[in-house]
Amino acid sequence: MRKVGKKNNNLQRRKILDFARDNNLIIHPGRGFDYYVDGYNEFGHCPCDKNRLECPCPESVEEVNLNGWCKCRLFWRDYDTYKNSHVKE
After folding, report:
1. Cα 75 from chain centroid (whole Å)
2. Surface-to-core class of residue 33, CB atoms within 10 Å of its CB (0-12 exposed, 13-18 middle, 19+ buried)
3. What pLDDT score was predicted for residue 71?
4. Domain membership flag for residue 80
5. 1 lies in a domain?
6. What pLDDT sits at residue 1?
7. What integer best gives the mean pLDDT of the chain?
8. Is residue 41 one of the residues assigned to a domain?
9. Each residue's pLDDT tens digit, 44-55
10. Contacts for 45 with CB less than 8 Å, ≥ 6 apart
11. In a domain, 65, yes or no
């Protein structure tokens, strides 16, 4: 496990928040982003895809536009998309 200082953790959190705001996305409401920040810091790449070296990755916006969420499900189009994907009928 990589050791990451508090400052780097906060920078990664800010990067994710800014990315979501700048791209009009919401962050996974149930899990928040600590799970993703911790995974990124531990592995040194996207916690869901080792071939994606950045988190947030550029592919996530395209995936949200196409599917309503990114591969990791960190970013979502909106709360309705999130809610509809989690409601069991």
Report:
1. 5
2. buried
3. 92
4. yes
5. no
6. 46
7. 86
8. yes
9. 888 888 899 988
10. 51, 52, 53, 54, 55
11. yes
8-state DSSP, 71: T
pLDDT tens-digit map of 9-21: 888 889 999 999 9
Four-residue CA torsion sign, 68, 80, 55, 15: positive
Q: Which two tokens stand for residue 57?
A: 């990755």
H or E element, residue 27: strand 26-27
Element (H, E) at 19: helix 6-22
pTM, entire model: 0.82
Helices first, then strands: H and E counts in the chain: 4, 2
- Expressed as residue numbers, the domain containing 77 is 6-86
Q: Which residues of the chain have pLDDT under 70?
A: 1-7, 88-89
Instruction: Provide the sign of the torsion angle of the four alpha carbons 49, 63, 73, 46, taken in this order.
Output: positive
Q: How many domains does the chain have?
A: 1
